[in-house]
Design a protein that fits this description.
36% helix, two-stranded antiparallel ribbon, 6 helices, Nucleotidyltransferase, domain 5, 4-stranded mixed beta sheet, alpha+beta, 178 residues
Length: 178
């Protein structure tokens, strides 16, 4: 049996096919991502649609390398960046690019949330952590304040890995740590 692992990284998508009996990597592929250029200072965004293309290409390369053993793929696992909120509308279309690590455009909103809950100590007591610019809450507040039209259209908010899982399965879900 084989396991396909997919990692959505900042620079690209990696797929590996692992033989579960021998623990040998049977195939590996990497497809680069492009950053959106020309954004204001502090912004780092990618179009999530390119992740779909990258996953498709990387997995196809791995399956081709398995030479007729693709029916032995028993499971697929997906990992992604800690940050990368994907917004979908009612028709499941991507609303806007995803902000990724290194994007500090939501710092003001992260600070605003912290102040509303008594700073870092208050947030730690309430939620177990003091989220900063990587927080989905800060990104949602930024969106509401700066792009209200997009905020109002959002029907689903998914992490990068949840977005790819949705694309592969048609089901929206997440893991407890997301």
């Amino acid at each position: 049996m084989h396991f396909i692992g997919i990692e959505i990284g900042h620079g690209g998508t990696r797929a590996v096919a692992l033989d579960l009996e021998s623990a040998v990597i049977r195939a590996e592929a990497w497809v680069p991502h492009d950053w959106i250029e020309g954004l204001p200072a502090g912004y780092r965004e990618q179009n999530p649609a390119q992740w779909i293309d990258a996953v498709d290409r990387a997995v196809r390369q791995c399956l081709a390398a398995l030479e007729g053993q693709k029916e032995r793929v028993a499971a697929i696992g997906i990992a992604g960046p800690q940050r990368g909120l994907v917004l979908l509308d009612e028709a499941n279309r991507i609303i806007r690019p995803a902000k990724l690590a290194g994007d500090v455009s939501v710092k003001k909103q992260a600070d605003e949330i912290a102040r509303a809950f008594g700073g870092a100590p208050g947030l730690i007591e309430l939620a177990g952590q003091a989220p900063g610019v990587e927080s989905a809450a800060a990104e949602c507040l930024w969106l509401k304040q700066h792009e209200p039209y997009h905020f109002q259209r959002a029907a689903s908010l998914l992490t990068a890995q949840d977005f790819i899982a949705y694309w592969l399965t048609g089901e929206r879900s997440t893991e407890p740590g997301s």
